[in-house]
Amino acid sequence: MTKAAVLQFLPDWLHAQQGGIERRETLRIEYDMSRLSRCFTTWRGAKIGDIVAYVRFHPRGEIVQGSVVEEVRAEGRPPGPVVAHRAAPLELAVPDDATRVEMWFHHFSQTSRRCDAWDSRFGENYWFDVGGPPPRSPAQPVVYRAGAQARADVTNVQTARVSKIDAFPRPASGPSVGKDIQTHLDLVAWVSHTAWGANAWIDVHVFDGGDALVHAETLPLAYAGFGPVQQYIFTGKIFQGSTATPGSVSPRPDARKVQFRLYYELDGQVFTDGILHQAELPEDALI
Question: InterPro entries given for it (predicted)?
Answer without folding.
Answer: DUF6209 (IPR046181)
